[in-house]
Specification:
mainly alpha, 0% strand, globular
């Protein structure tokens, strides 16, 4: 129903855009959680030598991966062919490039080793596209810009092992966000503060981790 709605009306309002994002990610997160759980069970059953259970779990994992990939491919195609081409507002373009990158990250989780690096490169391209657009056109008061900084910095930390790049994005956004936090619209205020707080926590953790690595190296 959601896919058909978007096909008929690819230009979404802010509320519709957020709903589309939440529906897609909520469904996928349920499947991703199941995928991680069954993969952990495969390791446990393999250690016990219960190979019949391993085969059964493997079949379940294959089925879940097909379901995840099916939904991801459908939504990614929709973004590329209908949503982005019809998005005239910069904030919407940033939002959808970030969503595309997020979904490509999910796709990495259910891809083979050969595909993973290609998909990660595509995700990084989408994050970069969103980041350049947001830095040049969106005010720091935009929750879309701050949300992008959170996800993009996490991408560099979790998938590229690039702490410096993650810190640069997170610190830049956090320092600017602190200057305008009192001016944020009341409706978005709580979510904006939560995102800023997440940036701060990540900065503290990554800075500490970097210091430990440098001490160990010295």
């Amino acid at each position: 129903y959601t896919i058909n709605f978007v096909r008929l009306k690819p230009v979404l309002s802010n509320d519709e855009r957020n709903l589309f994002n939440n529906i897609c990610k909520s469904f996928l997160n349920i499947k991703r959680k199941s995928h991680r759980y069954f993969k952990s069970q495969v390791l446990k059953e393999t250690k016990k030598g219960k190979f019949e259970n391993v085969k059964y779990l493997g079949d379940l994992i294959d089925k879940i991966e097909l379901e995840i990939n099916s939904v991801l491919n459908l939504v990614l195609e929709l973004i590329d062919t209908q949503i982005l081409p019809n998005s005239k507002k910069i904030e919407a373009q940033v939002f959808y490039h970030r969503l595309k990158a997020d979904l490509l990250r999910y796709k990495v989780e259910v891809s083979n080793a050969e595909e993973k690096e290609i998909i990660l490169d595509l995700a990084e391209q989408s994050y970069n596209e969103a980041y350049m657009l947001s830095e040049e056109n969106l005010p720091i008061s935009s929750i879309v810009r701050v949300g992008l900084a959170v996800n993009f910095s996490l991408f560099y930390y979790n998938h590229r092992d690039m702490i410096e790049e993650a810190l640069i994005i997170a610190k830049t956004c956090f320092e600017e966000a602190c200057k305008v936090v009192d001016e944020i619209d009341e409706v978005e205020g709580k979510d904006y503060i939560l995102l800023a707080q997440l940036l701060k926590e990540n900065i503290v953790f990554w800075t500490s981790e970097r210091s430990e690595e440098e001490s160990s190296y010295n």
